[in-house]
Amino acid sequence: MSISVTTWSLEQTSPDDLRPAAAPPGEVRIVRAEVPSAEFSRFLYTAVGDDVSWRDRLSLTREQWQKTIAAPGVETWVAYERGTPAGYMELAAQDGGTVEIVYFGLVPAFRGRRIGGHLLSYGVARAWDLAGRWPGTEPTKRVWLHTCSKDGPHAMDNYLRRGFRLFDTKVEEEAVEEGPPVAP
What we know:
Strand order of the largest sheet: 2-3-4-5-6-1-7
Mean pLDDT: 93
Strand content: 25-35%
Helix content: 10-25%
Distance between the termini: 24 Å
Structural class: alpha+beta
Number of strands: 7
Order of helices and strands: EEHHEEEHEHE
Low-confidence stretches: none
């Protein structure tokens, strides 16, 4: 069995494109996970992505996962609400001054609380100033990401409200995976 999945690619080409969201009420902090940890990264990935079918990294060994997140120019930014991880964003510097938002999302219990717009705003600002934290990295000229029809119902709207522009759309058939969810 398969389903039709639409993937949209979006970009910003100037830091002036960013339209930040207001900070949510309450105690929400965004912190860079400066010590790459495959275990913590996998926790975030499954906590955020299980219900929207993130599966591409699940076959990685611990060593492969660690190598991926410890690469130069890769950063993980985590939103915490009162000390509990609420969501995260993974950035990856690429050639030509490009930074990809590889993963972005919230743990389901934290969705709908205005944390996503705030985390996206903060993370995109960190994508624009990433070269300042990574000597030898080209200054950012472009920030891009992709989202798909399996993501949450507010994902695309959040990206557009933060100033991203659509530059590509693809529709593909994808096999429906059988089996239990990754996280409880």
